[in-house]
Amino acid sequence: MKQDQKAIRPKPDLDFSFLSRTPLFLGASPEEIEAMTACLEAETRTYEKGQMIYRAGDTAAALGLVLCGRILIVHDDFWGNATVMDSAGAGQIFAETYACTPGEPMMVNAEAAEDSQVLFLNVGRILRTCSRSCEHHSRLIRNLLALSARKNLNLSRKIFYTASKSVRGRLLAYLSDQAVRNGSHSFTIPFNRQQLADYLNVDRSALSKEIGRLQREGALKTKKNWFEMGK
Amino acid sequence: MKQDQKAIRPKPDLDFSFLSRTPLFLGASPEEIEAMTACLEAETRTYEKGQMIYRAGDTAAALGLVLCGRILIVHDDFWGNATVMDSAGAGQIFAETYACTPGEPMMVNAEAAEDSQVLFLNVGRILRTCSRSCEHHSRLIRNLLALSARKNLNLSRKIFYTASKSVRGRLLAYLSDQAVRNGSHSFTIPFNRQQLADYLNVDRSALSKEIGRLQREGALKTKKNWFEMGK
DNA sequence: CCTTTTTTGTGGTTATGACAACAGATTTGT
DNA sequence: ACAAATCTGTTGTCATAACCACAAAAAAGG
């Protein structure tokens, strides 16, 4: 269930042209999207920075599409340690995994990292009824599948990177994969040191130590979030 | 590309009644499935224990549905350490993530854990063409989405369990979640000690040590793969 | 039933990384 | 341009977990 919402805006405010450029609605025209919003029980809600959108334990019937702002997906363990699992900016979606597996309680919180506006879409109705009932549903489902598969790859990657038990192993697994994926020995990463440490599940200072060591060995050059790998 | 196949069986050998009971074809009748096989370019291949089905670096156009035997999904890192990521038995599918994100090179190997028979289905064709071209495609895609979302949850869980830096933290995260999911303080797990250690990314002896400690504290009772959590 | 193999628990040693504290560098805001 | 805040690298201490070796227990196989 959605919580702490400040206001509910009527659908007419929706920017269908913006939506048609999001991965979820890719290939659908603004007019088609407008036609779909009824089936999807589209609802827009606004959140202030720090507000909770979904809480662990909730069952999410609707996925969220970020209209503006940024949403963080956070896992809190027993002892209160928070782990950032994912983040979704404008045009991206979140909670779609739970919206696609009805009844499954969420393991994470979704919270607004900044003042944000979220469009909720009840995809469950589409998934349960025959897609022929509405022409454009099938495209939406295909897009959802593509997004889900891509998220799968991202989760797998994080698992691979953290498979090594040493800081060095994790760092090299991550960096060398980035080099491969960028097709270049020189690239930038979307993390600062603290975030990279959190992502690789290591201590920040230990990470800095290892980076320094690799630089002294000549295996690496780095400045801020730019890296160059020795071949 | 598929490798090392020993024989190609013609479609008439397929057991459509079996297929209709698999998660992928759930809700489709044997006759409907038979009609679909053409669109899916269905091909059956047999593999001997240990044979490679897909290699890391391959691009997989077809997903694999295990007809009999068992397929292991294995990640080999830089230094040759192998990690079992997943396993698929009869009726289950593998490589569907890659089949749904065309062009993405695989990060894992797929290999036969025992003599196996695999049905390859080219879902890419379905995803790229309008689903109306074949009545039953939409159900297949919805099933694929459900499977993908569920795999997502499994990957997330593994990440949560290994988020803690201590053996104790990981073990308790895993066991307490199992208790919740089983709805009971008493449950069995699908791992022996070595497998659980691998899954949680810790050393086996360290795991045994921690289990012993928890038992002495009275927080836990265990025998083999049976556990009972103190409340 | 006995042998062989696999699984599990323990102890000791050592390397490693978490943690804390701090200084220099860089960025941001005013 | 300056002050404040944030980010990064460095050092030292200490707890923890990996690693190794072995014995007890359980399972498998004949």
Quick structural gist:
Chain A has 231 residues and is an alpha+beta fold. Helices cover 37% and strands 23% of the residues of chain A.
Structure report:
Two copies of one chain form a homodimer. With 231 residues, chain A is an alpha+beta fold. Chain A has helices at 16-19, 30-39, 96-100, 124-128, 137-161, 167-182, 193-200, 204-216; strands spanning 8-9, 43-47, 52-54, 63-68, 71-76, 82-88, 93-94, 109-112, 116-121, 186-188, 220-223, 226-229. In chain A, the strands form three sheets. Chain A has a five-stranded antiparallel sheet. Chain A has a four-stranded antiparallel sheet with strand order 3-8-5-6, with no helix packed on it. A three-stranded antiparallel sheet of chain A has the order 10-12-11. In chain A, β5 (71-76) and β6 form a beta hairpin. The model of chain A is unreliable at 1-11 (pLDDT under 50). The A-B interface holds A 75, 77-79, 81, 83, 85, 96-97, 100-101, 104, 107-108, 127, 130-132, 138, 141-142, 144-146, 148-153, 155-160, 162-165, 169, 172-173, 176, 201 and B 75, 77-79, 81, 83, 85, 96-97, 100-101, 104, 107-108, 127, 130-132, 138, 141-142, 144-146, 148-153, 155-160, 162-165, 169, 172-173, 176, 201. Chain B binds a DNA duplex (30 and 30 nucleotides) through residues 165-167, 192-194, 202-206, 208-212, 224.
